[in-house]
Amino acid sequence: SGRAFTPGPVVYPVETDEGWRPERRMMLLFLIAGFCALLIGASIGPLQALNYDGVNAYPALRSIFHTYYQGLTVHGVLNGYVFTFFVTCGLLVYLPARELGQRPSMALWGACFGLMAVGALSLIYAMFDNSSSVLWTFYPPLKGSPFFYLGMTILTLGSVQPLPILLKMRAAWKRAHPGCVTPLVTYMSLVTMLMWTLAGVGALSELILQLDPWSLGLIGTIDPLINRTLFWLTGHPIVYFWLMPAYISWYGLLSRQAGGKLASDPMARMTFALLLIFSLPVGSHHQFSDPGFSQIWRAILVVLTMSVAIPSIITAFTLGLSLEYAGRMRGGLGLVGWFRALPWSDPSVAAQVLGALTFILGGATGIVNGSWELDAIVHNTTFVPGHFHVTVGSVTAMTFMGLAFWMIPHLTGRKLISRRIALFSVWTWFVGMTIFAIGMQWAGLYGVPRRAWVSALPHETYHALYGVAATPTALIAVGGVILWVATYSFFLVFFGTLLFGRRAERPAVPFAQALSGPVSHETGVAIPVATGHGASVLANRLEHVWALVGLTAVATVAAYVPILWPFLHNVTHSPGWVLW
Ligand code: HAS
Ligand code: HEM
Ligand code: CU
């Protein structure tokens, strides 16, 4: 009957290697910087939720935000770029370094932090001085100040710095372990950074060739369509730069934290290889409603978009099986007993499993968006933010919250001040985000527009237009308020532990072992791969990351030339607009 299981969290091994002081401090710096951005960003979110229910908090906030759009820009930029980039660029160096036992280049890692910090501060300055309410997509002809675009350029340049660090550590490890495949967490981190560096070419060329000189007055006019296309060349893959670090935690750590093993190491590698190849060519599915490129390419984009969902479907099964294995190891019986038997009292596990659950809704709505004809119904409605708050707003945010729950004790040697409050924050985030997202998606089906300060409309107009969506907009507001509670209880634990946590033994990094695959984290020694047999063949083939990069580059060029071609032959010259 599923009652036989052992309750309580899985006990983490204790850190025995004390030689990682500089790396731990640097990682902590990245973590704190990222979460400070989330604190500001997530405090604004509920105001936007209330906006959709007709509650206009902005007149009262005049001294901070002149318009709704200024707040929305801060929310999107701090959550979407600053929070995610800092946590990821810390994690994707720290975890591989610990896995390989290789010291990262502290100079490069420090430069990564420094560049991102300068970029982020420049963005914050530009957004708070009300010069740059251009939203997180910074579409021209909306025109912000040079501090915005230069800040974005520097932040992005900073965010690719982990790549050379990873390449160097991997090369050194490979020299010491001839014939072995790269350990899993390092492999996934490397593929993520390769994907992101290739993807960054779009936004960086948009910024460096167009927006930076334009905002500095060196170029007079701008072509909105070309710039949107370059933006989405990066703007779609960025969603996988938000997702893949969460997957690294799910594949690389979560099964161990849950008391089991990862079902398949080669499947994890395959997922990352597919995400690398499929992420880049599909960016223009954000432009189904833009004019000017061929219908045939739109149809091809639909097919490509469905392909990019495949690695996530593989993940759903591999992760589901790994969690089932963990639950059964803990004595869970029957159809659902294994799920109940997971160590729910560990806030790090709860955060990640609940985050994964929300992705079922996030993925399903993504597939709706990716279907051109359905997208025509939901595009530019609240359905779209409804989709991405159960992806980046839950999968990424909750996984990073879960990471913080073991990482802060690991990095600082301090115990969480309250496991109960940590659990409370995770469950309220899950419940709040689910209610909020369902409300947003449902309201979108009534045509409620996204990025609209609807609460500033006269009361009668608001009701005449959106009265039909009264139930879903009420859900949006309820979800938003629950999320405020979740946010502040999370940060109570986060900062409380940093400042007042009691000294305790450090938990070690909970690297998972694989049921099937070539790498053993148990002994810390990689198992040499016997070529020509079973799953290891796949892992061996996927070691050729530069071949994967080549394939990706070819696919991306093939997808983008036909889309950009007509735009380049019909350049429009738009002056800049400042609407705030
Ligand atoms: Fe998206 C718009 C299509 C995934 C983020 N997306 C956005 C925007 C953002 C975003 C921010 O094709 C708005 C940008 C803007 O401001 O305009 N998206 C997709 C598709 C996927 C997808 C096909 N999106 C994401 C992820 C994001 C993200 C991930 C952030 C992290 N999206 C679109 C499209 C648009 C779009 C169009 C443009 C719309 C428009 O009109 O503007 C796929 O990758 C999704 C695949 C996912 C799955 C789910 C797998 C489920 C898993 C969980 C399993 C659970 C377990 C729990 C194991 C197929 C892995 C175990 C327990 C049990 C008991 C079962
Ligand atoms: C936009 C609410 C947390 C990323 C929005 C919108 C709402 C909202 C209502 C749409 C506004 C509009 O279209 O007019 C919330 C609430 C949160 C939250 C209540 C709970 C704390 C997050 C998190 C992330 C995030 C954690 C990412 C890590 C974004 C982005 C946008 C957005 C990228 C798009 C901004 C734009 O359109 O330019 N949020 N959000 N949000 N949110 Fe959140
Ligand atoms: Cu996309």
SSE blueprint and pairings:
Layout: H1 21-52, H2 68-100, H3 106-128, H4 146-159, H5 162-176, H6 184-215, H7 224-235, H8 237-257, H9 265-279, H10 295-329, H11 334-340, H12 347-370, H13 372-378, H14 383-389, H15 392-412, H16 419-445, H17 459-466, H18 470-500, H19 534-542, H20 545-569
The structure holds heme-as, protoporphyrin IX containing FE and copper (II) ion.
Structure description:
The chain is mostly helical and 580 residues long. It is 69% helix and 0% strand. The chain has 20 helices and no strands. The chain is globular and about 60 Å long. It binds heme-as (HAS), protoporphyrin IX containing FE and copper (II) ion. Copper (II) ion binds next to loops.
Short description:
69% of the residues lie in helices and 0% in strands.
Largest sheet: none
Strand residues, percent: under 5%
- Secondary-structure class: mainly alpha
Spans where pLDDT lies below 50 across 5 or more residues: 528-535
Terminal residue distance: 61 Å
How many extended strands?
0
Radius of gyration: 23 Å
Keywords:
580 residues, mainly alpha, 20 helices, 69% helix, 0% strand, binds heme-as, binds protoporphyrin IX containing FE, binds copper (II) ion
